[in-house]
UniProtKB/TrEMBL annotation:
This is Helix-turn-helix protein. Keywords: DNA-binding, Transcription, Transcription regulation. Residues 188-294 form the HTH araC/xylS-type domain. It comes from the Bacteria.
Amino acid sequence: MEANENSRRLMYGCDGVTIENGHFKVHAVSDQFKVATPYIRRDFYKITLFRGISRLHYADQGILIDRPALTFSNPLVPYSWEPVSESWTGYYCQFTEDFVHIRDRGRLSLQDSPLFKIGGSPVCFLSEEQYATVEGLFKKMIEEEATDYIHKYDVIGSYVNLIIHEALRMQPATSASKQSSAAVRITMSFMELLEKQFPINSQEQTLALKTAGDYAKHLAIHVNHLNHAVRDVTGKATTVHIRERIIAEAKLLLRNTDWSIADIAYSLGFDYPAYFNNFFKKQTGMTPRSAKLV
């Protein structure tokens, strides 16, 4: 099982880098941004500064990025990049919740920040002046990480906070409040709860919440209320979100572990492997065994 858990940890990394608890990495953008990345959840926060044209698929949004921008990703929300242009320049940093935090009348979780929270806007478009300001902070982080200073990550954490606050300063005043409706709050709670079910890291782990009714009960609301809110905000039914997330996790387990199909089925909440086989084939057009060989 140790080898499987190691491969799962690496699988949720990015660009060949494993972000361990409390750690940090910063990079200049290179050729990996010219290749589409898989639509999965990562185990770290990520801030990207770049010039280049691409489409970001983040949760249920498809955002065309055609000018200088900062993007923010949350470990609870799956995302992928679809490159459009051949020319890329910029930087990105990856870090965990324990590495850095925002202070505002005490500790504030990054997931509560308008930049990272579920349902927020993950993209901040920049003017040339703003781009230069943030670029300078990324360069300072790279320079600092190369030093032997014992407290260098404290310094780097300050630079990360500066980038976050620069982005908050750039955002329109309405951006942080437009997501305040009851339907959005319910949908955000549902999406966060859904993502917390994953990843499945061991064969002993099973999904605790399987149906829309399970999620509604956990959120202490009627299932019809949950369904209406989720459909109004995302355009898709609660059951569709659950189904798509289970399929995404199933594909990752099939391709990146040596677990049997029966073990995967039980971990994903299916009482019998045959039920999982039928579900997977109906959703993907192929059997789990075929997907495992792809």
